[in-house]
Design goal:
Number of strands: 3
Number of helices: 14
Strand order of the largest sheet: 1-2-3
Largest sheet: 3 strands, antiparallel
Order of helices and strands: HHHHHHHEHHEEHHHHH
Radius of gyration: 19 Å
Structural class: mainly alpha
Strand content: under 5%
Helix content: 40-55%
Distance between the termini: 42 Å
Number of domains: 1
Shape: globular
Mean pLDDT: 95
Low-confidence stretches: 1-12
Length: 306
């Protein structure tokens, strides 16, 4: 029989929050080919019942269909567009993004950090800024709660935004335009703020991608692991220097973090975002007891989020 003291210690250890320093370190530029697999990283996660975002339970245990993910990315190749991305982006990096993990929110950060050779605290800090660790909050009607897993709405309706929003409805089984208006819908989804929109002007002179989407939707909305997997893959690819139009030398992981938000390299917007993420990491915001009590409020029109 386990003693009362030992039993209490075992119970407390199972509820343990991640240690402030995190568990994984940044693997150097050029180490991409030796990174562990998602299967290997499942064994390296520090599992615990600690969960400040119980609202994420369903997407945390949703793994997207791997065939559908692969087809979505294959229909929108990056490296064939005038050399804007290295060939490895299509041949190695994107095929590795599957979201093949189920677990609690922090366990997902650990798994992705291990898989892509990144610091897990970096992923935690980014997610604080992007969503306060909410994967996808909705009101009873299904309308998404802005800034809690969906956001970056179009400021006005255009023909390209209409194509994008219509395509979103077709593959995502929810009509955001019914909530926000014709040609108005979220560009980004998830705990990590993964962008789904791809402006046709970004592809010029090449043809626009199907539905003006980059291939991440609806997987980034439905699966926390996919969203964090995709974020981490981008940071690794950027760090390796495979985003040729942005920073082909690579080697600056914080510049890559800034570009995730700003879409450019070391601009004032990008550097401001870097400072904010670093502050979240320095403060270990997710370990503050008040963090778990954050929740989107009720709306007089739409009710209380589910």
């Amino acid at each position: 029989m386990v003693s009362t003291d030992l039993g209490l210690r075992l119970a407390l250890s199972s509820f343990r929050a991640p240690r402030p320093a995190g568990y994984f370190v940044l693997q150097p530029q050029g180490s991409w080919s030796s990174l562990p697999s998602g299967r290997q990283c499942k064994k390296r996660v520090h599992y615990s019942t600690w969960e400040p975002r119980k609202q994420n339970a369903v997407p945390n245990h949703t793994i997207p269909n791997a065939t559908a993910v692969a087809a979505s990315f294959a229909a929108r190749p990056r490296s064939t567009r005038g050399g804007t991305y290295a060939k490895r982006w299509d041949s190695w990096l994107l095929p590795r993004v599957k979201g093949g993990f189920q677990g609690r929110t922090d366990e997902i950060f650990q798994w992705a950090a291990c898989k892509w050779g990144l610091k897990d605290n970096m992923l935690r800090g980014i997610a604080v800024r992007e969503s306060t660790w909410f994967q996808y909050e909705t009101y009873p009607s299904g309308r998404c709660v802005l800034n809690y897993g969906c956001g970056d709405m179009f400021s006005s309706s255009t023909q390209p935004s209409k194509i994008y929003c219509d395509g979103q409805t077709a593959v995502g089984t929810y009509d955001y335009q019914a909530d926000f208006g014709s040609g108005i819908c979220p560009k980004t989804f998830s705990i990590a703020g993964v962008m789904s929109w791809d402006d046709p002007a970004w592809q010029d002179p090449f043809p626009a991608w199907k539905d003006n989407q980059n291939g991440t939707f609806p997987f980034n909305r439905n699966s926390t692991a996919f969203a964090v997997d995709y974020l981490a893959s981008y940071l690794r690819g950027c760090y390796e220097g495979w985003v040729k139009w942005l920073h082909p030398e690579g080697g600056d992981i914080w510049g890559c973090v800034g570009s995730w938000y700003a879409g450019d390299w070391r601009s004032s917007r990008a550097n401001g975002y870097i400072r904010r993420v670093k502050n979240e990491i320095l403060s270990h915001t997710w370990l503050d007891p008040a963090f778990a009590r954050i929740t989107p409020g009720c709306d007089p029109t739409f009710g209380c989020p589910n």
